[in-house]
Amino acid sequence: VFLGKYRSAAAALFNLSALLLFLPLSAHAQVNAVSRFKFEKQKFLLGGPIFCDFVIKNTGTKTFYFRYRSPDRALNRELENEPHFRVTGADKRVLPDPAPRRCGGAKGSTVYGSVMLPPGKTHTERWLLNQWAAFRRPGKYSVRGQRRIPLFISEPGPGDSSPAAAYTTALDELQFEVVPASSSQLLAAFEPFVKKLDAPAPADLSEPVLVVTALPQPFFIDKLELLAYAPATEHRWDASKALEGLARLGTPAAWKALEEIARGKSGPALQQKNPASSPADESVRAYAILLLAEKGNAAFLPAILDVMKSTSSSSDLRQDALLLLRGFKSAQNPDF
User: Fold this and answer.
1) Which residues sit opposite 225 in a β-bridge?
2) Phi, psi of 62 (to 5 degrees)
3) Would you tell me how many other CB atoms lie within 10 Å of the CB of residue 296?
4) Residue of 206, 247, 201, 252 whose CA lies nearest to 224
5) In Å, what is the CA distance from 160 to each residue of 112, 114, 157?
6) What is the pLDDT of residues 134-150, one digit of tens each?
7) Which single residue of 26, 108, 134, 336 could bond 98 by disulfide (Cβ 3.0 to 4.6 Å)?
């Protein structure tokens, strides 16, 4: 009898322990998701945008939240929420990373909002793969996409350090092909993005601005200049991205536009379209000077010296120009 009672008590204790262990797991099991990377198509034009989609679906029984921002690349590789892409060619070599190194290589900061995803719902983001790999020739390629996202029961606020209820991880190896493109094909590929730039507020321009600044083409240089001369009241894009697009384009007309922006004037394309346009913001002019100095071409010295002569000695812009003259101090610039 004593042994039977002992066994009954032991069994009850075991069941209670199992229940206590199971309850928190059950609560967390309600937060569940699957995520993956995918392509909307398998062939892309050389020189055109290549998008890789990130898809997350709530497969649990409870609504969850996750951090979200406009899908453009953050240079800080330590951020938990960001995707990572590694592109290789048919020869298994990793493609060059086009991310800026010198003036744009700092980690910086990233501001997140959040997305609420009810059970059964799906969220999709389009990531421009050209931000991670420079595609210079046609061929077959492979991309390894990886991302780990924390999921929260309540909406995470800025700087919120609340523990995640669960995580979802996507790890995919995808194959695709890049094919040669004619000028007319590229024009058609970029046309939808260029047209969207004309949409009035409150239209979201994050994707078209990203495409035209990451993959600049001579046939829309006027759009890059217009983006650079955005008024202070325009908050839908960062004007400095337009300057980076001009520098990335790298044609004589693009560098001429940067010189004029640094001087506080309108570039050639913008002068034809809007002669009465206002000078760029002073911070934008300072960044234009930085890009000219980073290029290190002695032909840009007059533009920087003009800025110094046309501004007061106490001006931040003049001090920036003076400091950036050091970029020209090299054996390759005897005119320094």
Assistant:
1) none
2) -130, 140
3) 14
4) 247
5) 11, 12, 5
6) 999 999 999 999 999 99
7) 134
